[in-house]
Amino acid sequence: MTITAPHTSTDIAVYATGLSKIYGEGSTRVEALRGVDVSFTRGRFTAIMGPSGSGKSTLMHCLAGLDEANGGQIFIGGTDISKLNDDALTKMRREKVGFVFQSFNLVPTLTAEANILLPLALAGKKHEAAWLETIVTTLGLKDRLNHKPHELSGGQQQRVAVARALLTRPEVVFGDEPTGNLDSRTGAEVLSLLRSSTREMGQTIIMVTHDAVAASYADTVLLMKDGQLVGQLEDPTVESVTQALSGLGA
């Protein structure tokens, strides 16, 4: 099943063709992905959902270059990542991909600002001061830049993680249950920030979630079952997502 626009369009940030992933052998063999074709339009917020074991996390990890697919091709910003060696793949992830995970993954000894700047520091590159100012202002972090993670609330720590993900102007930001460790109010704030990053900064967001409320912040929801894409919702609501998941047995 092919989702969204054709991958030949310059408006596509990420796409994959014939993506397969197999774990185990013999009686323990599991086809986590079964010939998935999918593309993601630039400047859109997409949520991937499905029952446990549907392949949604595997799909995201393969798309992000965190896990290697057994077959198919994956393109990020026109680069075929399936042809990259380990060093080139690491460089690509650092320059073209941002990550926001359920655990904030901040360095406890560094300030919020140093955590935000870390990807560029590791790459030996200087940051663009005006862009950093835009990000921290948009995310409400200007008065927290000198604080270390233990001095920040969970929501503030996740905002730092979002800022870090946006700093390099990546082709795409992947979110793996990014609000899973947050209370509902703080989670709503972070989801609103992710949504605003697509509208105000033109960022492409791909998020895996099991939460219908979180998915309702997205522009599009992709539905998975048994390693395949089986449906799509545009302008999702909590009600439409819940009904669609119920139809999948989730």
From TrEMBL:
Coiled coil: none annotated. Residues 14-249 form the ABC transporter domain. One of its GO terms (molecular function) is ATP binding. Transmembrane segments: none annotated. SUPFAM superfamilies: P-loop containing nucleoside triphosphate hydrolases (SSF52540). Keywords: ATP-binding, Nucleotide-binding, Transport. Signal peptide: none annotated. PROSITE patterns: ABC_TRANSPORTER_1, ABC_TRANSPORTER_2. Gene3D superfamilies: P-loop containing nucleotide triphosphate hydrolases. It holds the Pfam family ABC_tran. It comes from the Bacteria. PANTHER family: ABC TRANSPORTER RELATED (PTHR24220:SF685), IMPORT ATP-BINDING PROTEIN (PTHR24220). This is ABC transport system ATP-binding protein. The lineage of its organism: Bacteria, Bacillati, Actinomycetota, Actinomycetes, Micrococcales.
